[in-house]
Design a protein that fits this description.
Blueprint lengths: L3 H7 L9 E4 L5 E4 L2 H12 L4 E14 L6 E14 L5 E9 L7 H21 L13 H14 L5 E2 L8 H15 L4 H12 L8 H13 L8
Parallel strand pairs: 1-6
Antiparallel strand pairs: 1-2, 3-4, 4-5
Helix pairs in contact: 5-7
Length: 228
C-alpha cells in the first residue's frame, strides 16, 4: 500500500515543462513523456528498488495491404508487467513502428522498435498511477487547456521533437489500427466495414486525419462495444 506522501505526490499537477511534443498525422500534435522521465519520476515517488517490471512478450508484426498483399508497414508489440511494492501488479501492451527500407540500418531499426514497444508498454502501465506519470496526457480536453494556457502566457514550454521518419506515418497508423483491432477482439473485416461506413474508404484508403480518428475510437472502445 502506498504511503500518504506518495499518494499526495502522485496527485500533484503535472509539470508541463516535462511534456514533449512531436508532429502527428494530419497536422496534429502528440504530447507525451519520455521513457526516462517517467522512470525518474517513479524512482522519485516510489524509490528505487520498490518497483520493477518484467517483459512478458515481444512480437514482430508485418502489415500487408489487403488488396495487393504487399507489406506496407511493420511494428513491434510488447507486453509488460509492472509491480510497485504493496500495489496490485499491472500488465499493459505497447507498440512501436519499424522503418523497412533496405540499406537503412535494419538491425538498428529492429532494436529500436523492440525497445520502443517495451518502453511504450511500461509507460502505459505507469499511467494508472495518475497525472504525474502521464495519465492526463490521454485527456484531449486537458491537453487543449494546457496548450491554451501556454499560448496565453506567451511562453512555449513544450519542446517539439521532430520525428526521424515522417514518411512512415501512414504505415505506422495502419499497423496501429490492426494491432488495436486485435486487442479489441475485432475482425479486420469488421474494421474495414466500419471505416467504409464512416469515411467511404477501407482502412488502407483512409486519410491521415481519418486514421487518427479511427485509432482514437479503437483506443476508447471496450472489446464488447462496436467501433464508433
Amino acid at each position: 500500500m502506498l504511503h500518504k506522501d506518495q499518494i499526495e505526490a502522485l496527485r500533484q499537477p503535472l509539470d508541463w515543462s516535462r511534456v514533449k511534443e512531436r508532429p502527428g498525422p494530419g497536422g496534429t500534435r502528440l504530447s507525451y513523456l519520455e521513457g526516462y522521465d517517467v522512470i525518474d519520476k517513479a524512482n522519485e515517488i516510489f524509490l528505487p528498488g520498490e518497483w520493477g517490471h518484467e517483459t512478458l512478450e515481444v512480437q514482430y508484426h508485418e502489415v500487408a495491404d489487403p488488396s495487393s498483399g504487399e507489406v506496407v508497414g511493420a511494428f513491434y508489440s510488447a507486453r509488460v508487467r509492472l509491480e510497485v511494492r504493496g500495489c496490485i501488479p499491472v500488465t499493459e501492451e505497447g507498440v512501436c513502428p519499424v522503418e523497412l527500407i533496405k540499406g537503412k540500418g535494419l538491425v538498428a531499426e529492429h532494436d529500436k522498435g523492440r525497445k520502443g514497444a517495451i518502453t511504450d508498454a511500461l509507460k502505459r502501465c505507469f499511467r494508472i498511477y495518475g497525472e504525474q506519470l502521464g495519465n492526463s496526457l490521454y485527456d484531449r480536453a486537458y491537453i487543449s487547456e494546457q496548450r491554451a494556457a501556454v499560448r496565453k502566457a506567451g511562453n512555449s514550454r513544450i519542446e517539439t521533437v521532430k520525428p526521424e521518419h515522417s514518411s512512415q506515418t501512414n504505415a505506422a497508423q495502419l499497423a496501429e489500427i490492426r494491432e488495436l483491432a486485435a486487442r479489441r477482439k475485432l475482425s479486420l473485416q469488421a474494421i474495414e466495414k466500419r471505416c467504409r461506413e464512416l469515411y467511404g474508404a477501407g482502412v488502407s484508403g483512409l486519410s491521415p486525419e481519418q486514421a487518427t480518428d479511427i485509432i482514437a475510437k479503437l483506443r476508447e472502445t471496450l472489446p464488447s462495444t462496436p467501433v464508433g
